Amino acid sequence: MSSSRSKTSFIDKPLSKGKGEISLALYALLFSEIVQYCQNRSHSIHELQTKLSEIGQDVGTRLLDLYFVRERNSKREIKLLNMLLFVKSTLWKVLFGKEADKLEHANDDERTYYIIEKDALVNKFISVPKDKGSLNCATFNAGIIEAVLTKSGFPAKVTAHWHKGTTYMVKFDDSVIARDKSLDDR
């Protein structure tokens, strides 16, 4: 006789309930393979970073869909600041097991925000050759952030920079700022 008790498969578990089930060594190996794959198909650092960002965007799109399918009690954010806090905290915890270090708003541009990570996991295990000194593999994370924001209705361009560790500069479309102001006026 077979038992009729149902077990929840790891596929159905909410992402927020998951344990860090993937080892750091496995993550490092997979990410280094992604970097090598992109490097073998690139002729410049800019092209390599663009390819990393594109792969990150694919990951971000799938991750967002997966998150909202598994997290049945979650709702999609409509306010800009709430969405940025979702990225800084919830998304970062799902991806890296901890929140990003800081979220800042640019003083001189209402469209620009910064997500700061002192020690980006994707840069931790990559040895950058001297001839590629400006390479920042965190462009992969920037692609994830850009896809999550854009697919959530907050179109933005996200770039990774070496500043205070790794800083992701998020520049939103004017339409996002206008919509957010109209929601504040309600």
TrEMBL record:
Kinase listed as a keyword: no
Keyword Membrane: no
Cellular component annotations (GO), alphabetically ordered: endoplasmic reticulum; TRAPPI protein complex; TRAPPII protein complex; TRAPPIII protein complex
Top-level lineage group: Eukaryota
Pfam families assigned: TRAPP (PF04051)
Main location: endoplasmic reticulum
A GO BP entry: endoplasmic reticulum to Golgi vesicle-mediated transport
UniProt-annotated location(s): Endoplasmic reticulum; Golgi apparatus, cis-Golgi network
Chain segments annotated as coiled-coil in the UniProt record: none
UniProt-listed InterPro entries: NO_sig/Golgi_transp_ligand-bd (IPR024096), TRAPP-I_su5 (IPR016696), TRAPP_component (IPR007194)
Gene3D superfamilies, per the entry: Trafficking protein particle complex subunit 3
Keywords from the named record: Endoplasmic reticulum, ER-Golgi transport, Golgi apparatus, Transport
Assembly and binders: Part of the multisubunit TRAPP (transport protein particle) complex.
Entries under PANTHER family matching the protein: 41-2 PROTEIN ANTIGEN-RELATED, TRAFFICKING PROTEIN PARTICLE COMPLEX SUBUNIT 5
Similarity comment text for this entry: Belongs to the TRAPP small subunits family. BET3 subfamily.
Function: May play a role in vesicular transport from endoplasmic reticulum to Golgi.
Listed name of the protein: Trafficking protein particle complex subunit 5
